[in-house]
Amino acid sequence: MTTIRWGIMGAAKFAQDQMGPALHAARGASLDALATTSPQKAIGFKAFAPDLRVHDSYEALLDDPEIDAVYIPLPNHMHVDWTIRALEAGKHVLCEKPMTLKAGDFDRLIAARDKTGLLAAEAFMIVHHPQMTRARQIVADGVLGRIRHVAVTFSFFNDDTGNIRNQPEAGGGALPDIGVYAFGSVRFITGQEPLKISHARIDYENGVDVFAQVAADFEGFAYTSTVSMRLHPRQEIVIHAEKGVLRLSCPFNPTVHDQAELHIETAAHAITTERFPGQNHYVLQVEAFCEAVTSGAAYPCPLEFSRGTQVMTDMVYAAGA
Prior knowledge:
Rossmann fold; 8-stranded mixed beta sheet; 6-stranded parallel beta sheet; about 30% strand
C-alpha cells in the first residue's frame, strides 16, 4: 500500500492533541513534517513523532518535495487561501472546518481542486464514524418510517477572549465552530437539504455569535437545533419518526465527551442500544483520505457536501440578522 507523506501547517493545540496522533497512527499515512515559527511548539509533536522535520514557515512546508499532503488547522479566515496555495504547490489538502466562511468561497476551492486534480476536503470527521454511517443506514432503510422532526444540540463553555473561537477577526463564533456539526449531521443522515430557515435567534458577545436557536424546514420534516459556546457541554441528535425514535449520544466528540451510542426505539418501552467503543473518527478520516488519494475511491465528504453545510450556515445568519 502506498504511504501518503503528511505535513501539518501550524502547531495548533488540536493538531497536537488529535490530528497529529491520528496522522501518525493511520494506515497508509506517515506524519513527516510540521511548519511552525516556534520550535518550542514542535516539542509536543515530537513526543509521538520523534523523526518529524520542522520547517520554520508554511512556504517551506509547501516546497518540501517529500510531502504529499498537508493538514491545515489554521484560524478559520486563513483556510481558503492556504488551501489553494497548497493545491497549487502540488499537495493534497485536508483542511479544518469551517473550510470557508461563505458558501461562495467553496467555488474557488472546487475550481482549484479540479484544475490540479488533487484531493481537497474539509476535515468533517463525523461522517467517517460508524455511529453516523449506521444512523444514515437506518434512515435510508426505512426502519423508522417517515421522519417528522430532527433535533440537534451541541454546546460547550468557552469565554476565553484569547481563544480564536472568541475572536471575530479570526472567523470565530459558535456557528462556524460547531454549527457545521449541527447542520452537516442532519444533511448527512437524511440526505436532504433545508428548504428554508423559519426561525433563527443568534446572540452575540464581543462581535462573535455565542448562542443560536434554529428552526428549519426540510422536505417532510421539521428541524430544530441549539448551538452554543456559552452553555454546559451537551451533544445529541434525536430523530423522531412515525415508527420510531433514533437517538445518537455523543455524536460529535466520541471518546472525549462520552461514548458514542445509538438508541433505537421502534416499539413501546423497547430500546435497542448499539455502541461503538474505541472508534477514532480522526484516524478513520485520515485512512479514508489516503485511500481516496491512492486508489481513486470516492471520498465520503467532498467539497460539494461541505459547501451545502456552509449554504445552510449562511441561511441561518441571514435569518437571524
